[in-house]
Amino acid sequence: MHPIEKYAQLSRREFFTTSAGGVGGLALAALLAQESKAGASVKNPLAPRQPHFAPKAKNCIFIFLSGGTSQVDLFDPKPKLNELAGQPLPDSILKNLRFAFIQKDSARVMGSPRTFKKHGQCGMEFSDLLPNIATCADDLLMVRSMHTEPFNHHPATIMLNSGFPRMGRPTLGSWLTYGLGSECADLPGYVVLEPGPGIRGGATNWACGFMPSTYAGVLFNNKGEPVKNLNNPAGLPQELQRATLDTIASLNEQRFKHIKDPEIESRVASYELAYRMQSAAPNLIDVADEKPETLEAYGVNRKDGVGQRFAHSCLLARRMVERGVRFVNIYMDGWDHHGGINDGLKHNCEVVDQPIAQLVKDLKQRGLLDSTLVVWGTEFGRTPLGDNRIGASAVTGRDHQPSAFSIWMAGGGIKGGQTYGETDDLGMNVVRDPVHVNDFHATLLHLFGLNHEALTYRFEGRDYRLTDVAGKVIKPWLA
């Protein structure tokens, strides 16, 4: 077999690993660079596309607090918790509920030491742990009535990211870049930042599933080399690199004419983007051109490591949407407080409160909030019952709760200053205006001018969509 034929028949993973040192595979969301001499037959898989109708949002910054943020300690005050603290719940409430670790027979209501106050003209309630985000109340939509099915982390995280509780489906950023393409010529259309502990499931949370790999998220580093293996080996002249890429593109074009595999389009686009990113990405990561007061407002100069990295990620997210990046994910794990919830929440909120609030304010001040949707998301909530798992020496945390949790959104066509939905006196179940994950996705796509029932991808003879066979647009959310 001729060596060229050998490489042409490699799988995508094998090709990137064997013939490119991983460089091309790291840039999976790209516009086909103008410098490429190949392209007459290989189209740009991320050319900008028209939405189904006029959009309100153009970009999204999705902040995912992984582990399950406690709605009753942050966003959904329940005085009844302290009134009933230490008491059991009736069997009529518990009989149909599933928990990850709670032992129902000995479970007791757990109070909260948090104090809540109303903020803004809208009177939105926030915990004392989020004083900075609370100042943005009139720009936020608080949703207290989210619910989902999975009660373990990875399935629930995949559910919120892809609308399905198992791996293998495209994630939200993939659907948006597939539906709308990218307006950024030298950065990926879908970028992932992970400033804290690694999220459960890793890259499965920003995967493209059965779509071509050009729609997958690209993990960026906060410092140093922006993307792993992006830089050239020492001593490689730019002219030689350009000539190599053009030769590879020509070979890929010939192969594409023969088999019409869309992965070849992704391959060409990823090589070209990697080439362009070598100058664009370092300039993006370097925030030296920001004003000192901007760095201070985000908290980029903080001394604690994860706090500094998270602040830097929020600033990078703003810089990315300024440059046209379609979808930015910021992941922070560590919100799974089965024990020590009071100290754990206090630490985590100190990390995220200032940078997230400044991100919303900075976008608004620059005129970008109207077109940029900012989301605080999590996979599920926490129980009003203390986590009395077997072997625990004390009950100091809460268990997983998919039946009711809170998220919030700002900008991008959202009607701010409103609290939507309601849970019962303990925050256990939704009692008014329930919102399933599929409804959340349908509404988010609507903000981007996409009909969730019409945005489909054919795979193995079936038309798939982000919302599967469910989902409805929540009209009261829309500005």
How would you characterize this protein structure?
This protein is α/β, with parallel strands linked by helices. The chain has one domain: Alkaline Phosphatase, subunit A. Strand 2 and strand 3 form a beta hairpin.
Short structural description:
By secondary structure, this protein is of the alpha/beta class. It is 33% helix and 15% strand. The strands form 5 sheets. Strands 1, 4, 5, 6, 7, 8, 11, 12 and 15 form a 9-stranded mixed β-sheet that branches. It has a two-stranded antiparallel sheet with strand order 2-3.
Going by CATH, the architecture would be 3-Layer(aba) Sandwich
Number of helices: 14
Q: What would you report as the Rg, rounded to the nearest angstrom?
A: 23 Å
The amount of beta strand, in percent, is: 15-25%
| Percent helix range | 25-40%
| Tally of distinct domains | 1
Uncertain residue ranges: 1-8, 12-41
Q: Key features?
A:
479 residues; 9-stranded mixed β-sheet; Alkaline Phosphatase, subunit A; alpha/beta; single chain; two-stranded antiparallel sheet; disordered N terminus
List strands and helices in order, with pairings.
Layout: H1 3-8, H2 12-19, E1 59-65, H3 71-74, H4 79-83, H5 91-94, E2 116-119, E3 124-127, H6 131-134, E4 140-147, H7 153-162, H8 172-180, E5 190-193, E6 218-220, H9 238-259, H10 262-285, H11 292-298, H12 305-322, E7 327-332, H13 341-365, E8 372-377, E9 381-386, E10 398-401, E11 405-410, E12 418-420, E13 422-423, E14 430-432, E15 435-436, H14 437-447, E16 457-459, E17 462-464
Parallel strand pairs: 1-7, 1-8, 4-12, 4-15, 5-6, 5-7
Antiparallel strand pairs: 2-3, 4-11, 8-11, 9-10, 13-14, 16-17
Helix pairs in contact: 9-10, 12-13
